Amino acid sequence: MPNKARIMIVEDEPEICRFLETALSDNGYIVEAANTGKSALKLCAAQPPDLIILDLGLPDMDGKELVRQTREWSRVPVIILSARDQEAEKVAALELGADDYLTKPFGMQELLARIKVALRHASRREHLSELVYAFKDLQVDLARRRATLNKDEIHLTPTEYDLLALLARKAGQVVTHAEILREVWGKNSDEHDHYLRIYVQRLRQKLHDDPLHPRYIFTEPGIGYRLSEEK
Ligand code: CA
After folding, report:
1. Is the peptide bond before 59 cis (omega within 30 degrees of 0)?
2. Model pTM score
3. How many A from CA of 72 to the centre of ligand 1?
């Protein structure tokens, strides 16, 4: 496989680390592992990886701090691994620039899918950005600022469109409440906090998306929303 992506695992639990190393190299990735934050930063500086899988609970350093330091010089995709009781930590890490997260225990297929999405987003950033996104029956045309469902135009307000376009640009990845508020409502967005749920609800109605069995917009409780990137 040409251009194998290099993935760095930062994880202090030897069993999880070994499991990840084996599974990822079996899937054709070049894998490096670090069991402390310090060694991770050192390895990163020596040869920057294409993607980082980061356990939030490290012995020597807060995982969030590692995200913050990495983001000072790099846009390398970071996928966080967190424990079930680390909701606030997870949100904070996403706010500091991590790209996605998985809660332990997680399935390998899920992690592999997230890795693919994150690598694709990263390469897209380097090239021309896509202008039309298609997901199942939904199309979002960024140049024309319009969306269609089964080729019929969906009548969206500018705010609803902005919300959908943001989710579409980050399809497959979680977008936090704070990020949505900042990107869609801009400054002083805190006052719009209560609108967000209402707007998502309206958008779902227009997409004929059932929140209990969503095809498009998935809720990440306490964190944000994720648009399914299935074609
Ligand atoms: Ca740990």
Report:
1. no
2. 0.81
3. 23
Ligand 1 centroid–CA 173 distance in Å is 23
Domains detected in the chain: 6-126 (3.40.50.2300), 128-227 (1.10.10.10)
CA angle 192, 193, 196 (to 5 degrees): 90
Strand residues in the chain grouped as ranges (E): 6-10, 30-34, 51-55, 78-82, 100-103, 132-135, 138-141, 146-149, 152-153, 174-176, 217-220, 224-227
d(CA 97, CA 149): 32
Helix (H) or strand (E) holding 187: none
**Distance from residue 133's CA to the centre of ligand 1 (Å):** 37
Per-residue pLDDT of the chain (231 residues; tens, 9 = 90+): 446 899 999 999 999 999 999 999 999 999 999 999 999 999 998 899 999 999 999 999 999 999 999 998 888 999 999 988 888 899 999 999 999 999 999 999 999 999 999 999 888 776 656 688 899 999 999 888 999 999 999 999 999 999 999 999 999 999 999 999 999 988 777 777 788 999 999 999 999 999 999 999 999 998 999 999 887
Ligand 1 center to 10 CA (angstroms) = 9
Cα(172) to centroid(ligand 1), Å: 25
At 74, phi and psi to the nearest 5? -145, 145
